[in-house]
Amino acid sequence: MAKLRPGLLFAAAGCGAIILIALLGPALFAGPANHVELDQRLLPPSALHWFGTDDVGRDLFVRIVFGARVSLLAALSTIAIGLTGGMLIGGFAGLVGGWVESALMRMIDAILSVPSLIVALALAAALGPNLRNAVLAIGLLSIPVYARVARAEALAIVGRDYVKAARLMGASNLHQIRANLLPNMLPPLLVYATGNVGAALLATASLSFIGLGAQPPTSEWGAMISASRSFLFSHWWYSFFPGAAITVTVSLFTLLGDALRDLLDPRERPR
Amino acid sequence: MTALALEVAEFTLDVGTRRLRALNDVDLCVGAGEIVGLIGESGSGKSLAALSIAGLLPKATGHTVAGAIRVGGVEGASRRAQVGFIFQEPMSALNPALRIDRQLVDAIRARRDADRATARQHAATLLAQLELPDPERVLRSYPHQLSGGMRQRVVIALALSGTPSLLIADEPTTALDVTVQLDVLRLIRDQARERNLGVLLITHDVNVVAYMAARLYVMYGGWIVEAGPTAQVLAAPRHPYTRALLASRPDRVARGAAIPAIDGFVPPLAAVTTGCRFADRCALVEARCHTPSALTVEGDVHIARCWKAGAGGSDAS
């Protein structure tokens, strides 16, 4: 195995810290996310309020810590939906081949040709504006991307002799998927998914910003930026810190995904 | 007489969307407990024949034009249950993500009604019969933790786990260390004898066939061009192709001398030819080699598809 690169260590440590904050933060930093103190409105960052306060006097640092849990969970949920759906469709297509595969993959291509955020927007609006529906919409629309990667992996695996041997022994398609396809498909797909955490987080935050995701009292990063719009020029910290949280998190997860891919996939390793 | 392990009768196969003729009129049989060699160079159709026999050709790829295949007396899709397949590359024949015990137990349970514990016991016995030291440790291992020879023994165990009547071994030793090649071959031979298994041994290594097989088929361009008892075929080849193939064995050529190669290459499937597929590379070619009658089978026990075969044995230089 190649030696651990500093980039990978840095990204892994950063992502680990963010996940820890999301898990433990709300318990560590006292005070509920929606604690309102109307006499503390729109205060700049200080020793008492590290990131300042918003227009109803809520502490922005506390809200961002709480928001880490909401945003990360939302991003991971979309990936779980996309990965599961993509693996089932792509794996099945790769295994059975023939016209079934062609039909499935052309459908996938058709969905891929439409900008997914726009469709997710329409879907979330149709389902009703809340975070769960936004996650569902983004998750469903990310299925095609995973399905294509999964199919490519499945095709490579189906060509191996152990799949032929299993077929010779009368293995069903279900057994092939469970024993031969999934265990060998999962690692590369998980690496690929890690690289997509950033994009998924950005997509959920975008829907929340537009008002189709998390609804106001929820301390979700995109929703927080949305609430700060009228204070953009007068009170910079209100929009800056949630924006910085998104930027840092997305960058770190994207870095981690790239570093993992470089480490595990020699074909794409830069020379 | 017991049922033949394998009977292929006048089997003709087209492949691909362009339906190119890949196998012509293949007649082949393997008796129970008999080891039969099938040799030919890359592209001769030997692996395609093996996949057809095992019923592993994707429906979209192979189209049977004529003929029948019977394994252990069984025809049709259920013949798959009668075939054990030993693949060339033992690493790719084992699932890298699962331990050996899971793979063997699944294979055993796919063929017979057994609970996991019984199947695992059976797997351990099978590995012990294949002379694997410490079967328990092997069962707990992942494929990458085993050596090439051990992996190939596990692949043989997988092939035997379904109690087949025919074992197809496709270049079973090509990917192995020279030191373990002989062990694996001996193991296959012993198992065939003990279990009364027919073995179809596919290889391009004449020495392997000479060591293992009682009878031998030579394939070229989708045709079986020569067949007969191994000793006879190797001592007095009747088809010009077989003669050229045997002459090009590096171990039969004096040190420092040039190895006689066969000029030209195997004709692609798309090449339209009538008559003998070897005609373009044959030293003895004549006009009538390009007529369909050039493919008539000559001989009885030791046969060859060459009109010169009758006299061929004597005028070979």
UniProtKB/TrEMBL annotation, chain A:
Q: Name its GO BP terms in alphabetical order.
A: protein transport
Which segments cross the bilayer?
70-96, 108-127, 189-215, 235-257
**Major site of localization recorded for this protein:** membrane
Q: Which Pfam families match?
A: BPD_transp_1
Which Gene Ontology MF annotations are present?
Answer: dipeptide transmembrane transporter activity
Q: Which compartments is it annotated to reside in?
A: Cell membrane
- InterPro entries, A to Z: BP-dependent_transpt_permease, MetI-like, MetI-like_sf
Q: Which family does it belong to?
A: Belongs to the binding-protein-dependent transport system permease family.
Protein name listed in UniProt: Cytochrome c550
Automatic annotation (TrEMBL), chain B:
Organism domain of life: Bacteria
Q: Which GO terms describe its molecular function?
A: ATP binding; ATP hydrolysis activity
**Where is this protein found?**
Cell inner membrane
Membrane-protein topology: Peripheral membrane protein
| Residues annotated as transmembrane | none
Q: Which GO terms describe its biological process?
A: peptide transport
Name the UniProt record assigns to this protein: Dipeptide/oligopeptide/nickel ABC transporter ATP-binding protein
Matching entries from CDD domains are given as: ABC_NikE_OppD_transporters
Question: InterPro entries from the entry?
Answer: AAA+_ATPase (IPR003593), ABC_Ni/Peptide_Import (IPR050388), ABC_transporter-like_ATP-bd (IPR003439), ABC_transporter-like_CS (IPR017871), Oligopep_ABC_C (IPR013563), P-loop_NTPase (IPR027417)
Q: Which family does it belong to?
A: Belongs to the ABC transporter superfamily.
